[in-house]
Amino acid sequence: MNTIANWSEPSVYLMRKTPYTATVNFSGRPLEGSEGYWGKFVDVFDPSFADSLRKAMAGQKGKAAGDPWCVGYFLGNELSWGNDTSLAAAALASPPEQPAKKAFVQWLQAKYPTIERLNAAWGTQHASWNALLESRNPPDAKKAAADLGEFTTVIAERFFQVCRDAVKEVDPEGLYLGCRFAWANERAIRAAGKYCDVVSFNRYERSVANLRLPQGVDRPILIGEFHFGALDRGMFHTGLVPTANQSERAAAYVAYVQSALANPWIVGTHWFQYGDQATTGRGDGENYQIGFVDICDTPYPETIQACRQVGYQLYRERFSAAAKAAAKNQAGE
């Protein structure tokens, strides 16, 4: 392993002995009409969002900012993007004082000269623009799809632009590593590609060999989390990707990293996490057997050996894969 990944302890990575990524946490007014596994999406039009980001990045001064050991910054984690119309629909489902809803209504007013024109397009019967602002009823999903999709892009691009600006204001040379997509739609991914230096995904799968960005998006990909677990020793939950035993777990590690090495878009994979979670569970109950060491700091030798096996060869494998791809391109295949 040659970097320290997300969620890591600052007192460790600021020892500046290993390249690391920094985690920047933020808050802000929630988009009330949104929902998701980890909670509501943030209202990117409320000033509290940008203010929180600026304050959080200011806290990196004298720490990660300008530090040559810092690879870059993650802002956000597994956010609730929904489908390609969800965030705009969530804005409409929010109270009238929601800044994102006001912004959407203003956007619609700029597109449609009158409320009657909007009603005709959407099949609605709003008496006025103010009535639309007061309403929390969803429009016909098919009739309003184009507008909902376009404004979802507006929300997504504003999110990534504000995040990028906050990073570059404090650390112009620092890389903005994205938000670690777990669930995402193409509009969100395209918005990330527009503003992020690297687009990050948490991918709990057996392989990432075929992971690609949408057509026309030219950015490197970073895997923010992956893991495998087994129950033959130590714990009572395998984590998100189960294996039969520690030997299979080690083999799965090798196969995953090799699949990433064979994928020219991927520039790194981050394992989650160093140590097993507590048997009694963390705050949300997770008690996964996903560590390189158990809860008594006893190593899992099979997985550690697998990490060494692929790690000692990773540059050779990567350049070999690149050479094969170049030869294939030259051959016109």
What does this structure look like?
The chain is mainly alpha-helical and 333 residues long. The protein folds into two domains: 1-163, no CATH class; 203-333, no CATH class. 39% of the residues lie in helices and 8% in strands. The protein has eleven helices and six strands. It has helices at residues 10-13, 47-58, 86-92, 99-111, 115-122, 129-134, 145-170, 186-195, 246-261, 301-311, 314-330, and strands at residues 20-24, 70-75, 175-176, 199-202, 221-225, 266-269. The strands form two sheets. It has a three-stranded parallel sheet. Strand 1 (20-24), helix 2 (47-58) and strand 2 (70-75) form a beta-alpha-beta unit. Helix 2 (47-58) packs parallel to helix 7, helix 3 (86-92) crosses helix 7 and helix 7 packs parallel to helix 8 (186-195). The protein starts with 9 loop residues before the first helix and ends with a helix.
